[in-house]
Design a protein that fits this description.
It is built from 10 helices and 7 strands. By secondary structure, the protein is an alpha/beta fold.
Length: 273
């Protein structure tokens, strides 16, 4: 069994539990030296594959700026980030004061420090913004939030092989060339009209985006760029991913705040090649 590397961020919809299935179905080509992820999230696939190079995108600028800073200034970043894991900061009043400070702050380094703090001290590890772009996750009330020093260092080392960009998923697809492999982990299509957790960044991911992603994947595959896409296994995604080889896996849901409701659901791994 391969050793799995955890992301340093908690992330709704993170792929740590699906790594074996994803790596088994990732298309392989003789020339594949670069993995492209238009929706990198916490980076579990990046951290558990071994390509020569990576192109990693996310629409959330706070996330990408954190990754770029950790790539370029790991020692300074990790030293400063650990300070926010002192006992005095595990306090609701401190948390909401820092949240207000974050929403007014323009300094990328400071925002990157606070982003990790919120991720580990905020409710359920959520990353959520209001319509004005303000971070609005409430305090999580954990006994002793974990500071992921080893995970940060591992990410920083692996990041030397990566290019991080913050753009639309469509623009990232345009960067792909023959020999690349693309893995897409978009915000999932809702299982029902009452279950639509899709706003990781201020800009939502619409049903039109779901359809566009399917078209882009087919176009890339036609140009010798294989694509693997994960999503809920529902009639809509099966229709949108027509032409792909569909593989079904059972995954334990982790978004629900109630453990009793974290049941297994079927997910698709759609392979366009």
């Amino acid at each position: 069994m391969m050793k799995k590397n955890r992301a340093f961020l908690k992330w709704a919809g993170g792929k740590f539990g699906l790594i074996e299935d994803i790596t088994r179905h990732l298309p392989q080509t003789t020339a594949s030296q670069r993995l492209i992820e238009p929706f990198v999230g916490a980076g579990s696939v990046f951290l558990n594959t071994d390509y020569q190079a990576y192109l990693l995108n996310d629409i959330n600028p706070d996330l990408i700026h954190l990754y770029q800073i950790l790539q370029q200034q790991p020692a300074e970043y990790i030293k400063e980030a650990e300070k926010f894991f002192a006992t005095k900061y595990n306090d609701a009043e401190q948390y909401y004061g820092l949240r207000s400070q974050f929403n007014l702050c323009q300094d990328k380094f400071e925002r990157a420090l606070l982003f990790l703090y919120f991720n580990r001290h905020g409710y359920n590890g959520l990353c959520r913004y209001n319509k004005k772009g303000g971070f609005n996750v409430p305090f999580g009330r954990y006994k002793k939030p974990y500071f992921p020093a080893a995970e940060l260092w591992f990410f920083a080392e692996k990041a030397q092989r990566a290019q991080f960009v913050c753009e639309s998923y469509g623009d990232t697809f345009k960067r792909a060339k023959s020999g690349d492999v693309i893995y897409c982990d978009p915000p999932y299509a809702p299982l029902s009209t009452s279950a639509s957790f899709t706003s990781y960044a201020a800009n939502g991911f619409t049903l039109d985006d779901q359809a566009i992603l399917g078209r882009l994947s087919r176009k890339a595959a036609a140009n010798d760029i294989p694509v693997l896409v994960s999503n809920h296994d529902i009639p809509l995604t099966r229709e949108l991913y027509h032409g792909a080889k569909l593989n079904v896996v059972q995954v334990k849901r982790t978004i629900s705040s109630k453990g009793s409701k974290r049941n297994k659901v079927a997910e698709l791994l759609a392979c366009f090649s």
